[in-house]
Specification:
This protein has about 280 residues and is α+β, with helices and mostly antiparallel strands. It folds into two domains: about 130 residues, no CATH class; about 140 residues, no CATH class. About 40% of the residues lie in helices and about 25% in strands. The protein is built from seven helices and 14 strands. The strands form four sheets. The protein has a six-stranded mixed β-sheet with strand order 5-8-9-10-13-14, sandwiched between helices. Strands 1, 2, 3 and 4 form a four-stranded antiparallel β-sheet that branches. Helix 1 packs antiparallel against helix 2 and helix 2 crosses helix 3. It is globular, with a radius of gyration of 19 Å.
Length: about 280
């Protein structure tokens, strides 16, 4: 996908097509899991949060157009946004990403689905950030060790206040933000904290590092869902290793909205409409 509009168009087509292949569903903890049965085989789609996923194609198109309008407004003017504005962003982004995932769940093998959905989420984040006027690119920081060996601290994206990203394989610009974009924090969270420590040791100055996640939920057996955010580990890393400069979810795990976790976490819409310009200021 090359543009945000192409993602929007794909989302509409998938939403129109899903009723043709979905033969059943179940709900659990506010999430819906769709089921497609054909020729004696059964496939399960990923859980989608009922308050975030836009099922109706016409409603999605309105939400998407509103999102585009919000992104075009200048965040640098300290504009006040309504709760509905933040919700619009999260619903639009969530529906775009999850329709891609659902299409792959039903039409491809699971391993292919996981890889492609992760790549598409990174593309969506990159396009959204570009839409609000922030330059970005992928960079790999090469950290030397031993006798001529290097460790590759790969970043998903770097966000920059400059016209072009200044960070490269040997230096991270202090004003730029290193971003890890993952569909889930499961099995990935530790690496984000460790890479921040390694980068700061290598470049010898503070490095701003954030994580952007889609959600932390998965289907459990055939009738339920479970959360995958390892909350205790997140707090231990934050307290005793290093504190990230932000952790954002499109679909926030419930525990991240409690008073203990709220100072460390926020919604993706909060990042996009408010925090992004503060971080690179």
């Amino acid at each position: 996908m090359g543009t945000l509009d192409e993602f929007g168009q794909l989302t509409t087509r998938v939403l129109e097509y899903l009723p043709n292949i979905v033969t059943g569903s179940f709900t659990s903890k506010g999430y819906t899991v769709r089921i497609a049965e054909s020729a004696g085989s059964k496939k399960y789609g990923r859980p989608t949060r009922d308050t975030l996923f836009v099922n109706d194609p016409s409603e999605f198109e309105k939400t998407f157009l509103r999102t585009r309008a919000l992104l075009k407004q200048s965040v640098r003017e300290n504009r006040e946004y309504s709760p509905e504005d933040f919700e619009t962003i999260d619903r639009s982004v969530y529906t775009m990403q999850q329709t891609v995932g659902l299409g792959l769940d039903f039409l491809s093998n699971p391993n292919s689905a996981r890889k492609h959905t992760g790549n598409r989420f990174e593309e969506i984040v990159r396009l959204l950030v570009s839409e609000v006027g922030i330059s970005n690119k992928k960079t790999v920081l090469k950290i030397p060790y031993g006798s001529g060996q290097t460790y590759s601290a790969e970043t998903d994206l770097i966000f920059s206040p400059y016209d072009q990203v200044q960070s490269d394989s040997v230096e991270i610009d202090p004003r730029e933000v290193v971003v890890s974009v993952k569909t889930s924090s499961k099995d990935r969270m530790g690496k984000i904290f460790i890479d921040k420590l390694l980068m700061e040791r290598f470049v010898q100055h503070p490095v701003k590092v954030i994580g952007i996640f889609l959600n932390d939920v998965q289907r459990k057996a055939d009738t339920g869902i479970s959360y995958t955010f390892v909350s205790g580990l997140f707090m231990v890393y934050s307290e005793f290793l290093v504190r990230l400069d932000g952790a954002y979810w499109v679909d926030r795990p419930p525990i991240t909205e409690t008073p203990e976790y709220a100072p460390f976490t926020a919604s993706f819409s909060t990042f996009l409409l408010r925090d992004i310009h503060t971080l690179i200021a």
